[in-house]
């Protein structure tokens, strides 16, 4: 099943008499196993598009299908269940829960999914080892560097085992080396777990890692340049 199909997807923000067209009639189709880079200057509509794909923001026009299900026709109350089933988010601010340790942050998503605690414990340890934080499981987020925190956010996204991962500027606060490490993890995730990973970014230094690059300008999607294989 195709993870994301959008047709003429639009979002117009209205404030009083002022209208801002943040996303204008975007058509797209994202497949499993792909790492997709969503590029565009500030204000071009990347976050708005990502928020609609993540069922956090209702489109004002067009249709959106996630895994064959028409999201646009659903009631607002049904969206949390869709998010829980299919989607994991990685945001620039890391969104870690400050009072919980690294290990507890990763466990939290699995507890919410009611995964058996023994299975969850093992998976959390494995994932934190995999992102190089095996020795920092009992640290609090504030005791970690930006790069380490972002790796916790990635371990947590992996723990959620979602087939669609949406990341907004995941390398925004990171130096080149940490940024690349984080992106390489997302690439491995896409190919090995057959996830669809969409990354909104300004960071041209990581361009080569994407399977596909789509660019936005003034809310529109520019014609796509397919990567040569
Ligand atoms: N809640 C909102 N209300 C009104 N206008 C908004 C709102 N959110 C975004 N916009 C406007 O929509 C347009 C697209 O914004 P968006 O944040 O999606 O762009 P972006 O490409 O993610 O930018 P950046 O790279 O700076 O994060 C901008 O003109 C912005 O000012």
UniProtKB/TrEMBL annotation:
Residue span, ABC transporter domain: 4-229
GO cellular component terms given for this protein: membrane protein complex; plasma membrane
Keyword Ubl conjugation: no
Keywords of this entry: ATP-binding, Nucleotide-binding, Transport
GO molecular function, one term: transmembrane transporter activity
Top-level taxon in the UniProt lineage: Bacteria
Family note: Belongs to the ABC transporter superfamily. Macrolide exporter (TC 3.A.1.122) family.
Protein name (record): ABC transporter ATP-binding protein
